[in-house]
# Entry
Amino acid sequence: MIAKQTSAIFFLAILIACSSPIQPGFSLPTPESACKQSLNWRGIVPGESTRQDVIRLLGKPSQKGSERYIDGRVSYYAYEIKDGAMAGLAEDRVFFDQDGVVTWIEAIAAGHDGQIYTIEEIASQVGATLDQVYVNNDYSMPEQYDAHAGPDDIYVWAECGLAVGAGLLEGTNQPSAAGLVIRHPVPAGELFTPTPRMEDMVFFKFFFPPTSWNGFEEHYKDKVPFFVYYIWSEYRQRIKQ
# Structure
C-alpha cells in the first residue's frame, strides 16, 4: 500500500468507515467541548500548518509518498527516526490535503529519548474523560480480528485532535483502570473489550484537527495506524537491553 517497503510493513490503513473525501475546503464538525490544552507536534498543527511549514520546522523529508484510503489518495512526508529504540523500525509521517494543508500526523512516541510515557501523563494534559478506547486492530477488516497486533488499545480525545496507541509492557504488574471516564464506551456484544489503564505505555500519537466524536468516526477512525505484532515485540526487546 505504501511505496516504501518498511512503511508498508509497519503502517496499514484501516478501511471500513464511510467518510467524506479529503479535499480542498472540506470542514470537520465542531468539537462538543474545548480541549484542556492546545496540541501540536513539533510546532505542526493539523488543519493549519502547510507543506512549507513542515519543511521549515522539520527539514527535508526522508521520503515523499502517497497512500490510498477509502476516501481517496493522500500524500505524505515521512521522517526517519535516527536514534532510540524505534530507529529503523518506523517513521514519523505527516499527511496533506489537496491544498497542501496538514490533515493528520502519525508520530512515534516510544523510544525517541529513552523515556517511557504513559496514558496517565496524557490524561494529565488533556483530561481523563475521553471519547472511546478501542481494542487496537479490532476494526481493521471484517472477520479478521487480531487483538494482539501491536499496542493493545487506542485512546481517543476527539476535541483535542488526539488518538494514542498504547499497551502494557511485559513484566509490568496488572494495574487499576481507575481514573478514566469514557463518553462513548464500546457497545455491548463487541468481540473484544478494551482494557483502559492509566499505566499503559504510549507507543504512537495520531494528531488530527479537533472535532466532535462523530467527526472523528467519519473522517479519521479509518486512518489511525496499527502495527504488526513483531514491531511491538522488537521494540520491547530493544528497551530491555
About this structure: The longest strand covers residues 72-80. DSSP finds five helices and ten strands in the chain.
